[in-house]
Amino acid sequence: MLMDLFTQLLAQLGQQERELTHPAHALIKSRQRFQSLFQNVSQMVWLKDPQGRYLACNPAFEAFMGLSESLLRGKSDDDLYPPQQAQRYLEIDQACLRATEPVVTERWASAVGGSRRALLEITKLALRGPDGQPNGVLGIARDITARWHLSQFEQLRSRILELLAHGADVSHLLQVLVDGLRLLQPEQAGLVALVATGAEQGQALRVVASAGLSKDFIQMMDGQPVASQLDACAVAALSGKQVVVTDLAACRPGVLRMRQGACWAQPFFDALGRTLGVFSVYTATPATPSAADIDLLEQLARLAGLAVERHQVAEQLRTNEAAFRALAEHTPEAVLVHRGGIILYVNPAALRLFGAQTSDQLLGTATYDRIAPAYLPQQLARMQAIVGGKTIVPLVESRFVRLDGSEVDVEVQGTAMLYAGEPAIHVSIHDISERKRAQEQLRVAASVFSHALEGIMITAPDGCIIDVNAAFTRITGYSRDDVLGHTPSMLNSGRNTPLFYQQLWQDLVQRGGWSGELWNRRKDGEVYAQMLHISAVYDQRGAVLQYVALFSDITERKAHEKRLDQLAHFDALTGLPNRALHADRLQHAMVQATRRKQKLGVAFVDLDGFKTINDTYGHEAGDHLLITLARRMRLALRESDTLSRLGGDEFAAVIVDLEQESDCDPLLQRLLTAANQPVLFGSAVLQVSASVGVTFFPQARELTPDQLLRQADLAMYRAKQSGKNQFQLSGFADSMF
């Protein structure tokens, strides 16, 4: 403390010089005595008379002021400083003369002419004569600028780290940095520009934060190609090295001449050494940066690089989040933050994990209450290690306690962070109850491995098969010796894509299990469908010990499902779409016709004389006739059209992609011809004709598929009444197009 220095200096003056019989001016009369006392003191020391005139000073004070003692002697602050500044110094001196104790202040002070500015801790003491009246002021000052800069920078650094921990926007982070520069060095301006890659101009500078610079200059800098080298910022970005220009005006025209003054620029990089951007400092007048200026620039650039790289990593994680959630959307991570064992923050997933309805049920409570007693020593040790900055195993299995008292198996990761500006612990919690249950099921399954009806395949973590059961051999045809040492890819049928297997393995690694259907190939080459369940088996340390796959042959089930689908949507006799599928396809065709601004026709076909065939030759002949005519009529239409059997001898056709209604006529004629052709049944010749009613879509009013079919049905009856073996239009098709 400066008070200690005062005590030492006054002691050196000697008992005689501090007695009332020796006034302070006696010290001034003895120049050699003053110098011997103060010239080797590192702090600044000076002496003034009661009127504020400098009487003496030591070399440290001369160095700061930029003036020798001989030039200072006899001058007052009014002679050296602007009026307002001189008045402040005078008021402090007068307060000191009135005080009985030393006056201690911290103040930013400037050298004469403003060539230097520093934060000083100043202690002033009034020297008094025998009558007790003040006859001088002794001042001692210590430069605490470096200490203040260090303190301010540490605060800035902590603020940046806190913002990083809370996921603040990168532009806000960088603005805080340049604002911090202005706080530390008010006479300097700052700019942060990121290197962006464009398709046309290559790499360019994008200004994301600035302080103390004009809008015109910022606009001129923003978008500047790195290769232009028009500014120290661009040169630093291109070279990847620090650039210092002490006088921008002295540079050649067109290069580094975008403003007056000086500039020093420091690029910052990612972990791979790639240039992310540049932190630049500007002064209004030519200047040479001090070692402290360069050190501050480098530290600010490092923080900028950290902020930008963290932002890029966060952006990449957000980009991948959608893909991850598609694989693990039912296993969201629970997150809580605690300090000193008290919960400060919980996310919605944590509420669900602990069975809380609101965050108030958890906030402010002890983390210890949420840890199962058997795992409390484990978690307490991890907390102490994190607080102490020690290395811990990133992920461990543990067990937590819900609010209702039930326990849940979890996987826990804890890391140190700043929360609300203070150290805290960030905890990610993954519910592994399902995985633990699956592991237990696998252990049980292992005891009946040889007798299981499902095929079982066990692989090492690298995928090599290490065991199979008898059911595996029965289903695949491969013996145990055939597959040991091979990977399951030998069973690949080729029907599933590489992306399918990539997603399967990603899900397996992240969730510890996968279930689904796939197609494999037996030893004899037959492709079959299987239902597959894969689970990871872990050792006590949480490492994958084995993968166990249980599968069953579901080929017959798939075939049965296909047959059921066929029965639900297709006519069992003719194989044509049935009434339900007809309605679905007609609805789809109506949507397409509206979108494409085209027409479609709906034809209702009824066979003439079919009942006579049935009555004369029997139902077997009738069925043969229906099958044959269905095939012929289908061939009479185009591939894009649909022919359906509605029931009995009734059929319906959906005729699409018509520019005008008359385009339908040739197709209708072909339908009539197909229905009129004779059909051989044994020695009998079967022959019928068809009556066809046609309507069109769209019409002047909105219609449902069923209404269109009824219009065509009515037109078909008019065809029968008009002599059969012909088609009739419905008369309702008042076209919209």
Automatic annotation (TrEMBL):
Pfam families: GAF_2 (PF13185), GGDEF (PF00990), PAS_4 (PF08448), PAS_9 (PF13426). Residues 394-444, 514-566 form the PAC domain. Its cofactor is Mg(2+). Signal peptide: none annotated. Residues 30-100, 438-487 form the PAS domain. Residues 598-732 form the GGDEF domain. GO terms for molecular function: catalytic activity. It comes from the Bacteria. This is Diguanylate cyclase. It comes from Thiothrix lacustris. The lineage of its organism: Bacteria, Pseudomonadati, Pseudomonadota, Gammaproteobacteria, Thiotrichales.
